[in-house]
Amino acid sequence: MEMDDEFLEVNDLDWFASFEDGTLAHFATGGRSFVPQAVRNSIADYEVVYDFFSH
Questions:
Q1: Domain boundaries defined on the chain
Q2: Distances from the Cα of 23 to the Cα of 5, 27, 48, angstroms
Q3: Tens digit of each residue's pLDDT, the chain (55 residues)
C-alpha cells in the first residue's frame, strides 16, 4: 500500500539513502516534511528497511 497524505500527516518517518562511495544518510520528517516518492511507494517496503536499520 502506498503512503497517502493522511498517513504522512500522522506519522513521523525516517528513511535512509546510500551513495556510491558507501556513505549512508539518515533523513527524518520531524512532522510534516518532504518524503521521496520512492519511500512513499510502499509502506511494507519502508517497514522492512526501517526494521533493518533500527535493530
A1: 5-54
A2: 30, 13, 20
A3: 999 989 998 999 998 999 999 999 999 988 777 899 999 999 999 999 999 988 7
